[in-house]
Amino acid sequence: xxxxxxxxxxxxxxxxxxxxxxxxxxxxxxxxxxxxxxxxxxxxxxxxxxxxxxxxxxxxxxxxxxxxxxxxxxxxxxxxxxxxxxxxxxxxxxxxxxxxxxxxxxxxxxxxxxxxxxxxxxxxxxxxxxxxxxxxxxxxxxxxxxxxxxxxxxxxxxxxxxxxxxxxxxxxxxxxxxxxxxxxxxxxxxxxxxxxxxxxxxxxxxxxxxxxxxxxxxxxxxxxxxxxxxxxxxxxxxxxxxxxxxxxxxxxxxxxxxxxxxxxxxxxxxxxxxxxxxxxxxxxxxxxxxxxxxxxxxxxxxxxxxxxxxxxxxxxxxxxxxxxxxxxxxxxxxxxxxxxxxxxxxxxxxxxxxxxxxxxxxxxxxxxxxxxxxxxxxxxxxxxxxxxxxxxxxxxxxxxxxxxxxxxxxxxxxxxxxxxxxxxxxxxxxxxxxxxxxxxxxxxxxxxxxxxxxxxxxxxxxxxxxxxxxxxxxxxxxxxxxxxxxxxxxxxxxxxxxxxxxxxxxxxxxxxxxxxxxxxxxxxxxxxxxxxxxxxxxxxxxxxxxxxxxxxxxxxxxxxxxxxxxxxxxxxxxxxxxxxxxxxxxxxxxxxxxxxxxxxxxxxxxxxxxxxxxxxxxxxxxxxxxxxxxxxxxxxxxxxxxxxxxxxxxxxxxxxxxxxxxxxxxxxxxxxxxxxxxxxxxxxxxxxxxxxxxxxxxxxxxxxxxxxxxxxxxx
Length: 715
What we know:
Radius of gyration: 33 Å
Strand order of the largest sheet: 12-24-23-22-13-20-21
CATH architecture of the domain at 406-431 and 541-643: 3-Layer(aba) Sandwich
Shape: elongated
CATH topology of the domain at 406-431 and 541-643: Rossmann fold
Strand content: 15-25%
CATH superfamily of the domain at 406-431 and 541-643: HAD superfamily/HAD-like
Helix content: 40-55%
CATH class of the domain at 406-431 and 541-643: Alpha Beta
Largest sheet: 7 strands, mixed
Distance between the termini: 43 Å
Number of helices: 25
Structural class: alpha+beta
Number of strands: 24
């Protein structure tokens, strides 16, 4: 399957882990689908498929045939290769969820009123003429109107010979209601003339009310776990009448609608929702600005570079959306359990009825057997199993996004807690990435224009420092055959002569050696065997470097530094930052080899870098972290991106990973232990008869506890 696309589609109609397993299994079975991940917390399906084999409409039909719905854009099949904008579709899904939530809340309120009234009339009033009819009518409204969504979903599953959580709820309320109707019409069959058969209308009404209360609380809590993605989407401007190359004016207080470069003016811009940094960033000519940030004081003239789906904000939204739809490895085991959970519960419920109706010597009988069976159906909670992992993942990744830590998938979030060794690149990662030429020595100033052209073509972080040192009166010369040599430097030709600029000289250069000894990074400009100029460059530590290393040491993590720089400069930087180990003069493939050597004893190694020359090491590390101000290749290669390039975000990432993993473990423990204890209890294993109303309340509370526990990650 070549030319596959990865898309996120909102899914409608899922209510529990069994639904997730059904939708995911249906999509995976379609020809052309390479991979699929369905999230109950995000109500979405992330599908990688080949549009030449199956279209979005085909995926939608398959999901509809399974009893659910997949939302796709009208005419989606025509432009799938171009990755159509998913925001409009997400907005439609969001509006649909809000409408459904409002309906759910109205039904809950009515169900509570009816349940309370039915309970009072049935338990608090002596028998009077028409009492049974009143109870029947009120319960019918509760069961068939307020609880209609359960019966509708259960019927859709029955048509496909399947079952889910709605099947259990529908069966339990219908059994209670129909059995009560039978006892009302034929009071002496299960009773006598002096003692008519018991009515269970209050149980049916209370079950409906409690389940609806649980659903409302669950949906509200789930909505909270996805707050980050909605907040980011809210930053995106609706319409931008600008194209790359245009210059637009941004007044104080305005949201910046494009990615671009300031050409005129100075101001402070609030970038907190992108970077997680509370302090506004100062902007002046040459500074980058991004969509969704807020200009505060001065007026800015901005040259437009990116708009719409090409902006940094759009990339962040896409990354967070994909990450929140990904699954942790343990979820695969949970999904397998959830897939058979409901059928097993149905078998247990039937076995419970048979035992208490035909086998039990004490406390049995048809009426009690039905109560036991209904309690089993109601108390079982596959929802808590299905929500245990994804709600924590969604909340954790969302919390990271709030703080400017972009995590690409669930595995990256879980693996970060295991980091034992962190390897840091030097320039742009530990240092500020704004080097300056402190000293320079020219031996042939006539070649300044050639060096200017070479450095202007370079993407190396030291290039701006050299360009700045040349002054504004130097004109660029014509060059050809420009080539960047990773880990060494750059070369180009002027006429027939080859020039080189980099970290080594073809001959011994005493002034360069002296500056290296002083701890400077030295760049040589050469023509053949002749040194034309030498530059001593210093790049100060980031303000966050020392604090970050201290925090990492406090976590028991060894911090190493890799650099292509010279040994003296590397040692000076490492000592200033408090770094444990350093390795200098390392080429890109040497960085990757060093990472592999650390992994030899099964130590989980993380690598943080920002340059093209770090991409091989990032790809080799167990956890790869890119600085947001670095190259696109480094960001694409990494599992995590620190938007602000603040090193203290790395210990924050590790802490978030530990908290998320702990929350997942707590959720799964609660979900499993709840069902292990609750189901036998409801079945009468301890010779206690659990009222179905209490069972319904327990089930509702179970799901709400799991989602609420996940929401603790957002604090």
